[in-house]
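> call design_seq(struct)
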């Protein structure tokens, strides 16, 4: 894939889903106009067929309060072993949907919510992407090192892999 190739629609959603399979934990940023920007690790429960990112959260958390006051968020994903990286900017909503809570609730969630999906402090967050950017440099590491060495010898810039904007 060439550098700066934009990804749209179904291809963007598939790229989201593929990366989340390998790296489900992101840095979830709120209050984007503050310094330092509040961030916390969050496990992505799902990327749906419309490209929305879904998370389980704690209703009483600062993060949920942040989202109610300002819905703009950024998600930062990294799969260093696969040389894949993703930044998603969008709007988050606290969703009250018992069926979605049950759908997303798994065994690991029980550690935080011992009362299961009916836990009164359990909330569901939906992030609707507005803008995204990806980096995919999946060349084999040895091949990449060889290409970098060859580029240095002949004085050319090495290929950086694929990167580009993502839109839905």
């Amino acid at each position: 894939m060439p550098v700066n190739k934009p990804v749209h629609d179904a291809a963007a959603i598939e790229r989201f889903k593929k990366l989340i399979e390998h790296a489900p934990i992101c840095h979830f940023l709120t209050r984007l106009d503050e310094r330092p920007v509040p961030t916390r690790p969050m496990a992505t429960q799902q990327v749906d067929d419309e490209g929305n990112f879904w998370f389980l959260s704690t209703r009483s958390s600062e993060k949920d309060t942040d989202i109610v006051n300002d819905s703009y968020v950024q998600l930062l994903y990294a799969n260093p072993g696969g040389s894949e990286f993703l930044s998603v900017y969008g709007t988050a909503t606290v969703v009250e949907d018992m069926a979605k809570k049950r759908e997303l609730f798994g065994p690991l969630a029980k550690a935080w919510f011992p009362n299961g999906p009916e836990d009164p402090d359990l909330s569901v967050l939906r992030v609707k992407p507005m803008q995204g950017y990806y980096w995919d440099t999946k060349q084999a590491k040895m091949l990449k090192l060889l290409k970098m060495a060859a580029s240095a010898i002949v004085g050319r810039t090495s290929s950086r892999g694929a990167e580009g904007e993502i839109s839905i």
